[in-house]
Amino acid sequence: MKPIVLIWLEFALCAGLIGFAGVRLSRYGDAIAAHTGLSRNWVGLILLATVTSLPELVTGLSAVTVAAAPDIAVGDVLGACVLNLTILAMVDLLYRQGSLYEEVGPGHVVSAGFGVLLLAAAGLAVLLGTQNMMPSIGHISVASLLLLGVYLVAMRTIYLIEQHHPARTGEAERPTLTLKAALMGYGMASIVIVGAGIWLPIIGVELARLMGWTHSFVGTLFIALATTVPEMATTWGAVRIGALDMALGNLLGSNLFDVLILALVDVAYVKGSIYAQLSPVHAASAFTACLMSAIVIVSLASRPARRVAGIATWSSLALLALYLLNAAIQFLHG
Asked: Going from the N-terminus, what domains does the chain have, and what CATH number goes with each?
């Protein structure tokens, strides 16, 4: 078998494993929410978002420590942020029981707002880092410490809001799984996702070599696509059982955690600040995701119901347009 065919088969197998485990996570997460009394927004934001973002974390750490490919690590993280918001547009496109933005709770505005802050900071860090204008403490950039601080403030703020204004919990029937079975299934699915994520950067480096593409291009479009399969599967699974708040919380929470991964891979990259080793094209992904998050905030505030030409709301069409714009930028660069 030709090496180029074999590497694509490995990529498809890895994405398939991640997708299979991701499908199960929505069921287990919904059962945990029902048994513990946690809101689906909080479960989506913390439990599902953290686990479905583990492929990005494992891939990023492996990329900077084993594969020595920081562009794949950062391209995966920021590309996943763009893809997560594109998934939201696709859900709105396929969900025909009403307007997605009308049916979810208002608490997601805070998550999306913190996403704007983190993504804008990440984009600025990339631009300043590539110009060697970002100070560091040892080999860790000050930008990473800032990202960590904003993430912790975001989690604390969202938790307090959930305590005072809990999201609606009556969106779906109570799952038949016991809490023990849900926790065990949740753990097993997480192990599969992490294991497949370790494999990805090795595939990515070889894919870039065989196809003649840059690491930033492969990381942003292909590795990000594979590591975002759990978000796709989990979000659609949550929508099918009527847990719209969990679905949106998963996507927005994944973006928050994904930006935090930038700080973690910077710590793991002991050769210096990772931002100084990157292609500046990553800033395009960061600012694109920032713009997309802003559109989500406007949509959650205005709650558009009318579909343009019966297809999707204006905001979802704008999200899709921004995704295609960023893909074109990455393609032309890489």
From this structure: 3-333 (1.20.1420.30)
